[in-house]
Amino acid sequence: MLARLKSSSIYAHLRQIKYRRQRQALNAQPKTTLAQMRAVLLDDLQIAQGDALLVHCGFGFLHADFTPQQLLELLKQIVGPTGTLAMPFYPPGLSQDWLKAGRIFDSAHVRCGTGVLAQTLADDEHSHISIHPIKAVAAWGQHSRLITAHHQRSQTPYDAHSPYYLLAQLEHSKSIGLGVRNCSMVHCAEDLYEQDLGYLYGDKSFAATVIHEGKQHRVTTFVHDIREPLMESSTFFDLHCPQLVTLSQRLVSPCYAIDNSKLLPQCQQLFAQNISRKKS
Question: Is 3's pLDDT higher than 50?
């Protein structure tokens, strides 16, 4: 029932209403300045030169008086030439629907479903995008080519060949959220360490076409097929590993940072104790 609801146009419409109301509430608040954003990143989240960041951003929830391009340039400036930026670059809509429709993922033409900041990064002439039909990553910086090189080998989207795992292996690797608290790295932990992936993925894999730098690739992947209620990543972290989360409430919407080198082993221990995102 849950899966059918989430695949429906009704669910998408209700989600749009929710986000519209949230943004209407933000309109009554003062705009966030670039100086405030810099303070969040440097002072609150302790982002530094050389960091490797998996960035999640709800740009509309920042209520910014600056552009996505200005935010991207700020992130680049802070991590510097030895740093790395990565952002999930998913096609719009539900992944199952995308695969079942046999659609082609061409990052040069598909509009990003994970936000305007990720689209801005993907459009950067120095960025690299991994070869995956539903859970690609756009990356910039010293290790961008390294972490995006093998995604087409992944059986599940966030496994050990994925940019998510490879970024987590870099020094000073962090997941951050700007205006949002969702975290893709929890899916990486699940793909790596959950003994039974049956509650996360369907039984059937899909072969899909990806066009990357003008060349066509066929990539086979499993797709999330959630059959029971799961906690949001933020709820899971708050309940089971709050000590890992650095949370900033300086802006109108929350921002966070998590050290990936601590998050993955912590999740591995929790899963071994049968503690997961399952609500039941």
Answer: no
Distance between CA 188 and CA 142 in Å, rounded? Answer: 22
Quote the tokens at residue 201.
């993925």
In this prediction the pTM is: 0.91
Residue type, 255: C
Whose structure tokens read 């086979």? 220
- DSSP string spanning the chain? -HHHHHTSHHHHHHHHHHHHHHHHHHTTSPPBPHHHHHHIIIIIS---TT-EEEEEE-HHHHTBSS-HHHHHHHHHHHH-TT-EEEEEEPPSS-HHHHHHTT--EETTTSPPSS-HHHHHHHTSTT-EE---SSSEEEEEETTHHHHTSSGGG-SSTTSTTSHHHHHHTSTTEEEEEES----THHHHHHHHH-S--TTTB-S--EEEEEEETTEEEEEEE--B---S-B--HHHHHHHH-GGGEEEE-SSSS-EEEEEHHHHHHHHHHHHHTT--SB--
Neighbouring residues of 229: CB distance < 8 A, sequence distance ≥ 6: 2, 278, 279, 280
What mean pLDDT value characterizes the chain? Answer: 92
Cα diameter, the chain:
48
**Residue 208: count of CB within 10 angstroms of its CB:** 22
The CA distance from 138 to 98, in Å, is: 19
Q: End-to-end CA distance of the chain, in Å?
A: 16
CA 71 – CA 17 distance, rounded (Å) = 27
Whole-angstrom distance, CA of residue 254 vs CA of residue 75: 17
Buried b (16+ CB within 10 A) or exposed e, 18-29: eeeeeeeebeee
Average pLDDT over residues 243-270: 97
